[in-house]
User: Fold these one by one.
Assistant:
Number 1:
Amino acid sequence: RRSSDLPRRSSDCSVMVWQIPENGLVAPLTEPVVTLEGHSKRVGIITWHPTARNVLLSAGCDNVVIIWNVGTAEELYRLEDQHPDLIYNACWNRNGSLFCTSCKDKSVRIIDPRRNAVIAEKEKAHEGARPMRAIFMSDGKIFTTGFSRMSERQLALWDPSNLEEPMGVQELDSSNGALLPFYDPDTSVVYVCGKGDSSIRYFEVTDEAPFIHFLSTYGSKEPQRGMGFMPKRGLDVNKCEIARFFKLHERKCEPITMTVPRKSDLFQDDLYPDTAGPEPAMEADEWVAGKDADPILISLREGYVPTKQRDLKVNKKNVLSENRPTAVGGKLAAPTAHTSVPSIHAPASHVDSDQLDDVRKKLKSLEMLVRDQGNRIEQLEEQLCKFQNGDD
């Protein structure tokens, strides 16, 4: 998986994978790299395998989970009998050997896709009828969110070797929005966002009772319709940024950054231990053959600098090359002219030197203006924070 490969779930029962050009979009994308068709109803869940190249999980309203090899546009595993009702979410464990799901039947299941088997199941993990979620922790434990019988929102931590009783439970409030958990394995912090809420609560998960420790709450005035989470390597380590969310409003998407105040300008090792990088630890064929591998870690000491992007090429050999063909309906198609990135350089014969100098001067002026405005915005934000915190 690479950060430039963007899968999209769809109401037309298909999954499409799009690839963002290395220097960003210069024109709208009109053709996906590959289209994966296998579900009979709307697809609501997609998630990349954490360590195997081009392995993608999808789950639909047909209660079916499909594991795909995107590099060959084919199904690897089809799990049809494990879920009797709608699947709320799915989450891989750290090395991708298992995944867990939460379901409308109130059960949390741990599934081995290569054996097509449920290896552990907890019925009525949360007794309430509203949606629940389940995610793997890096140490193999499972964190769930849901509702009690009295419709109180709950958090719970489970040991997969003994799902009879939770290790710890916390009740939050009686709001009716489903809780969405976002996990940072590097700091063992879980951020919990409720649909329709205007706050983000965060908790530290430890090995000591009560296991789930409340840290703090971020609050705003407008409710969130949805929330996205930036991977750790996308954060600004120079500003001690530990999390960045993308809050969906009715008409806009707002970035929300969380930072830890530090007086030192040195790299903060405790905030940024080595984290999972974008390079896969193994190929899809190796994972199918039974191999498991932990993520390849990278250091953020100098800030994350991505390596040169290798475009996804869909063929039976599952190789990545620099030339990307388009794909329709899961079948390979020959490269066409409209898939190439248009050049922004005009031929020299059509460029007047005086006009070029004028454009360069205007561009430089704009760059200086943007830089000045950015500095001014930072100053105003600092003043606003002081006023909100009651500082002089």
Number 2:
Amino acid sequence: MNKRADASEGREEIVVCARNGMTYIIDHSKNVVKFPFQQDVLAFVAGDFSIRPNCKAPCLVYVTFHNKIMLYYDIKLPRLDSTSLIESMLKDEGVLQALDKLGIRDNPLEQKKLYHKLLYTNELENLQKERSRTSTLT
């Protein structure tokens, strides 16, 4: 387990690697990035290292049971901040217009119910069938 600091953004992360190569990067908000290294790992270290003088960069270093040292240099991740579905949807202008038409733009509980219906029921399919039926009648 290693602590890795991103000096450019002033944030720290914990980097952990299991013997089977599964690597986890965890931030202060408990967001996790998980990825597999393809070999069993004898030793692992994460930190700022340099391959040129005065030029440090975040690195992951793996030592395998096959006598290989694998260096992943200048590893940078975007911020791992998570957001809710409602927060993400409120950034879309088309969604905002639809919520206005439904009269639920300022009602997160009703938005949650709507997204649940659209994602987990056949409500949208039923609405489409009903529309096609009414359009063929007129």
